[in-house]
Amino acid sequence: MDLVLVGLPGSGKSAVGRRLAGRHNATFVDLDELIEQQVGKPVPAIFAEEGEAGFRRHELEAVRSLGPADTHPELRRVIATGGGTVIDPRNRWLLYRGRFPVWLDGAPEVLAGRLNRSANVRPLVSGRDAVPTLRRLAADRRRFYAPALQISGAANVEATLRTLEGRLGDGPSPEATVLRADTAIGHVEIGYGMAASAVGSALTRGEARRAILLAEPRTWDVAGAGIAAALEAEGWQVERILLPRGERAKRMRVIEDTCRALARLHVDRRETLVAIGGGALTDAAGFAAATYLRGVAVVHVPTTLVGQIDAALGGKTAVDIPEGKNLVGAFHQPAAFIADVSFNATLPARQRRAALGEVVKMAVLGDERLLALVEQEGVAFARGDSRPIETGAVAEMVERCVWAKVEVVTADAREANVRMTLNLGHTIGHGIEAAAGYKAILHGEAVAYGLRGAFAIARALGITTAERAERVNSLLDRLGLAVAPPVVSLDSVGQHMATDKKHALGRLSWVLPTEIGVVIRSDVPPEAVAQGLAAALRIAEAGVR
Q1: CB-side exposure of 339: number of CA atoms within 13 Å?
Q2: Are 298 and 334 in contact (CB under 8 A)?
Q3: What is the C-alpha to C-alpha distance for residues 158 and 162, in angstroms, rounded to an integer?
Q4: What is the DSSP string of 499-540?
Q5: Nearest CA among 423, 421, 408, 433 for reference residue 501
Q6: What are phi and psi of 241, to 5 degrees?
Q7: How would you class 166 by CB atoms within 10 Å of its CB: exposed for 0-12, middle for 13-18, buried for 19 or more?
Q8: Residue 11 contacts by C-beta under 8 Å, 6 or more apart in sequence?
Q9: Residues 146, 152, 157, CA angle at the centre, nearest 5°?
Q10: Alpha-carbon dihedral sign for residues 512, 513, 519, 523
């Protein structure tokens, strides 16, 4: 097997790795030395000449050059990474899947002392006060190191080796977690094949006495039954409540039925619900959790890409009424959010494509790397190609969207200001969904129509360029999103927009794209709105794309 050592500069990865490899007749790979061999320059020179971004590109190539993980049960290779190697989502995907990752942790004060005695130059620490620098790096990188087995507090190399050798029998797991974080809005995990174990851990943390699983019929077959079986094998008592599929779950009658089922199970306030399904299911289950007994804990396990990148995270729960989408709801943060990207392999092509509408929205908010990633991998994912999942591209999309939302919601949990930016494309999009009766158009498809409309309004107001609008509209074209006119009337969409929850003091707030992000405007003139609606509904007479 391959064992991968991660941790901050000074944590002893190279020293421990060399000794461990020598004691077990394994090959030792120091990733920084490998980079120097491949580039022909020492690491400090690479940083000086190409900056950190250039170094990270070489680092990714070095990780790729390691090849497939060694699956032999005995230790064959020990890989010591640089302190920042696992910042890159693709590096974590390659290093944590099929390998045994170990996090050598230590107090910044101890690590700073080691660095002061070391002859090796660490570019991100050199020339700075080491202790506060390491504290900042530790806070920033904890979520990247946390999926690995944590070995902390060892006083010296020999003590660390004894602890580590006592755990070698754990070996690599067939599942992989690539991000784990405790945040102000709940515990967050992202990985591949890890949903059942992560749910079990969440129930244990919540001191639950049983597992109460809420799912849709199809997601029960795809994901719920497997999670239930794994939990039962671990000794959990499992209860099941099935809700209708899709947007039909988001009805007040369904919420009543769900709460009555909870009452029949004698669910009390100390229990935890587990919502397994798409965004509509987690919305409905979250609302039931928020209101039953005035609030019980809920763990969200989104099984669709749109649920993983948006709907299941952030604590906004809601149901629909005939007058509009999501007009009745509550803020109720999940105790845990578990995104297992392996579920995306089972999605129908239309759901894959529709979810990319939300991914593009998140990219337009200001993540240029995410936008480029969708341009590179989106078409293949939409047509059902497994490669974007297997290479970690989809996991990177999920992570970038999730962490951006974590940061926004942490800053504005109840949508008082900055969180409104997440509604880019949603004003017109929700109007289209409502006009279609929440049946004919998927949410991500509606957001794509709304994005076209938002760019048309932004162009009319002069706050974004034709080139930026063309780039996003062309990407939507290639993805096959919002290409044909939706089967809704202009009047009906306008009427539903009039009940949009983003109204304040009689004025509708618009989230509009700029060249590098978005702005919120409540002074959009009717003629600009008309251009936006025409562009969204693909009305040729509008004269805009």
Answers
A1: 31
A2: yes
A3: 6
A4: T-TTEETTEE-EEEE-SSSEEEES---HHHHHHHHHHHTT-G
A5: 423
A6: -130, 125
A7: exposed
A8: 83, 104, 105, 106, 111
A9: 125
A10: negative
In the prediction, which pLDDT does 130 show? 79
- Structure letter (DSSP) for residue 324: E
pLDDT of residue 545: 40
Pairing, β 186-192 against β 336-340: parallel
Quick check: 153 pLDDT over 80? Answer: no
How far from 459 is each of 310, 464, 470, 476, 536, CA to CA, in Å? 27, 6, 11, 17, 13
**Beta-sheet strand order (sheet of 100-105):** 27-30, 77-80, 2-6, 100-105, 149-152
Q: Are strands 100-105 and 149-152 parallel, antiparallel or unpaired?
A: parallel
Tokens of 144: 């990247």
Q: In this structure, what DSSP letter does residue 69 have?
A: P
How far apart are the C-alpha atoms of 175 and 253, rounded to whole Å?
38
The Cα angle at residue 350 between residues 349 and 353, in degrees rounded to 5: 85
pLDDT in tens, 56-98: 999 999 999 999 999 888 999 999 999 999 999 999 999 999 9
For residue 100, what are the contacts with CB-CB under 8 A and spacing of at least 6?
A: 1, 2, 3, 4, 149, 168, 170, 171, 172
Tokens in use for 301? Answer: 């396990």
What domains lie within the chain, and their CATH numbers? 2-174 (3.40.50.300), 182-347 (3.40.50.1970), 416-542 (1.20.1090.10)
Q: What is the pTM of this model?
A: 0.91
Tokens of 431: 């109007």
- Name which of 497-501, 533-537, 538-542 the model is least confident about: 538-542
Closest to 12 (Cα-Cα) out of 120, 90, 99: 120
307-344 pLDDT per residue, tens = 999 888 999 999 988 887 788 999 999 999 999 999 99
**CB atoms near residue 140 (< 10 Å):** 11
